Each structure stands twice: as C-alpha cells, then as structure tokens.
Amino acid sequence: MRAVSANLFALLLLCALASVLYVWSPLEERLERHTRRLSAPGGGSLHHQGLPADLSAKTFRALLAVPAAQRPHLGGRLEAHNLSHRAVPAGSGGYRTHEDDKGSTRREGPVQSGFPVEDGIFWAEWLEDLRPVGFTEEYARGWRERARTYRVAKLEPGCGRISNQLATFADGTKACVRYGINADQVQGETLTYYLASLLGITNLPPLVLSQLNSDSEQWGAVRAQIDGLQWSERAVVSLTQWVSNLTGVVTPAPLRQESGGLHPALGELRSKSTAELLELLQWTDLIAFDYLTANFDRLVSNLFSLQWDPRVMERETNNLLRTARGDLVFIDNEAGLVHGFRVLDMWERYHRTVLSSVCVFRRRTARRVAELHGRGDARKRLLELYRDSEPWSVDLGFLSDEHAAVLQDRIGRLHEHILHCKGKYGQL
Ligand SMILES: Nc1ncnc2c1ncn2[C@@H]1O[C@H](COP(=O)(O)OP(=O)(O)OP(=O)(O)O)[C@@H](O)[C@H]1O
Ligand SMILES: [Mg+2]
Predict the structure, then answer these.
(1) pLDDT at 293
(2) pTM
C-alpha cells in the first residue's frame, strides 16, 4: 500500500513538473517577444507606444496559449491531409477594386443617408457602398503572383517576434515573413487567409507560402541571415504583404464589455459619423470571422485579460491595425483554425460572449455563412481554394478531418446566431 502511495506521489509530482514546463515554454516565448518589442528601435509594434515598459497585460495571453502538440517544423514534407495534387494559381474576382474610392469624401461627415441598419440586422446598402474595399481578390492575386517571383534582398526585425522577419524585396517592397513557432501556426495563418477569401472578407493582407531554400533565387541573397536565425532549410514560411502607415485600433465602445453590445436597437447608431459606422461594420466582420476561426489572439484575449486588467479595452487591440483611409487590417492570424481549435475548451466561452455581443452583420457575410452552412461543404471549398491558389499547399497540409468538422460546426453556430438576431430584431 505504501509502495503504491509512493508511486502515486511520484507520478503526481512528475505531472506537476510537466504542466509547469508546458505552460512556461510559450510564456517565456511571449515574454521574450514583448520585451523585444518594447525595446526594438523604430518599434515594429504600435501596440504599446506611450505605455510604460512594465505594462505587460497582453503577455498574459501567453498563459492561455497552450502549445500545440509539438510537430517537427516543416523541414520536409508534412503529412498533407487530403491534398492530392498541386494546381495552378487561381482565384475568383468580382469584388470592387482598391481604386474604386467613390466613398472617400463621403465617409468623413455625419450620417446623412438614413439609419445605418436595414432589414432588421444588416448594415444598410448605402453604408456598404462606402465601405473601404480592403485587399480585393484581384489585387491580392496580383500581389501573390508577383511575390512568388520576388527576390528577398534583406531580412530584419520589424514584424514582431524574432520568428517573424521584415523582408525587403529587390524592388524595395516589403513583406512579413512568418516562420512560426511550429507548423500549426503557418498552417493556421494560411488557412485563415483562405477562409477570409471564401467569405469575401478583404481585410487580410495578401499571403503566399514559400520554401526556405538558400539555393533558390528567392532566398539566395539572405542565406547568411537565415542561418543566423537558425531557420531550418526547406521550412515552409508565409509571406504577407507589409503595409505602411498602419496605426493601432481601440475596441469601439458598443463592443466593450460594459456596453450592451452592438445591435439594431442601439440608439447611438443614429449619432455616429459615417467613418465610425464604417469601422463598426468592419468590426462585425472581424467578430464573426474570429468566432469561426476561434482566434483568441485579438478581442477574446482582451476579454480574458479583463480579470486582472480592467482597462484593457481602452488599449489597442492585439493584431488589429488601421490604414489612414480607415480599412481595418487583420494581421497575425496564426492562432486561427488549427491552434485555436486545439485550445477551444479553454476559450469557447469567451468566443461565445464576444459573438453574442453583436447582432448586426454585413449582408454578404451572412449570405456566405448561410451558403456554407446549407451546403455543409466548408472543408471541400476551403481545400479547393487553398489547393488551387497555393502551390505549397501539398507541403504545408490541410485541416485534419476533426478540425474541418469543428469549422463546419462553428459555421452552423454563427448562422444560428444570425437567425436568432433576425428573430429578435427583424421586426424593428
Ligand atoms: N502586414 C503588416 N504590415 C505592416 N506591419 C506589420 C504587418 N504585420 C505585422 N506588422 C507589424 O509588426 C507588429 C507585430 O506583428 P505580429 O502581431 O504579426 O507579431 P507578433 O510577434 O505576434 O507581435 P504581437 O505579440 O504584438 O502580436 C505589428 O503590430 C505591426 O507593427
Ligand atoms: Mg501578434
């Protein structure tokens, strides 16, 4: 009996030690990122400008970022779930272009075109017409095609943590290279990008995958830097377009915890300026999107941090930036889909709280969610788009069947929530 107790005690001790290591390693990594960010010359990050260096509330996200089951990094060919062939780059057009800027002057003034919500729960058509168009499909396709051919002339800090590097191409344009702490993160970033494309959400900078290969034309000039970073040869990394002059974004009042949420009966919608309404419109896409992908590394992590940092909502939201013309830019989506689904148990109640705070949607987003729900084919469509657009998709792999089912389930839940809002506010 005593021997059994001793064994049990030893086992418990081992479990406790393992848990500490499990939690500490990502925390340490995040803390390193935070420290580096605060001290980086030129400040790759905008998040903490003007804040004291000891203000580390956001690093608490780390405590919750349970590491993915460690997989070997993408040095070689990964298990490629259900990917049978490479295909030629493709995409679907049909969106307004970046240059279609008919709304730029009309955005500034107060609302003159009537109530911003119509048919119960949808942003009004006149507001949609003024919406910043973001990275249209056509624009993104052009960037992706060019980025595949560009040669990287320089790698330097400027895109956050050390595992991200700011790449300057030979023509002077830039991209953020994400090596990822593990393969899940590159996969999450990439599949999240293509899911946004399926939904017609154009707030994510264009992304391509590339294999680090110092013999290749693309990476040859930065061979020494890649060695210095200890990035493994033949790893698959993502490149996202670097966008200049971005600034931080604070969560708008109706979406903060202390408010009653963003819904069609909200009186203050009448007094908002067009620019404020356009921002809210993009936020509603962001919230629906982060719910689908279970991305905890934006608004949801702020909600969690409220427990010890009551003013967190007054600070800039993580991984969200804004262009001078008012487009929200959703960066750093690597927590989405893969990692986000793995740690869903821990975060789901926060995801639901955030989703339930919104009862206004873009009509097109709601329609696409309804289609994906009705057909039950999210996995198939995401896989096709990814495979047809990204030559390295075979090497990076796709969602597991289990995670594809989680995605379909979340699409259903989002659809139900939209119907619930329609039932509640449809008669207004
Ligand atoms: N596509 C981009 N265009 C311009 N700047 C970018 C882009 N991506 C990242 N950055 C800059 O790098 C910073 C950090 O980016 P990112 O979130 O990807 O890295 P991170 O290591 O996760 O940092 P954090 O812990 O702040 O989330 C951003 O706040 C922004 O200043
Ligand atoms: Mg980030």
Answers:
(1) 98
(2) 0.80
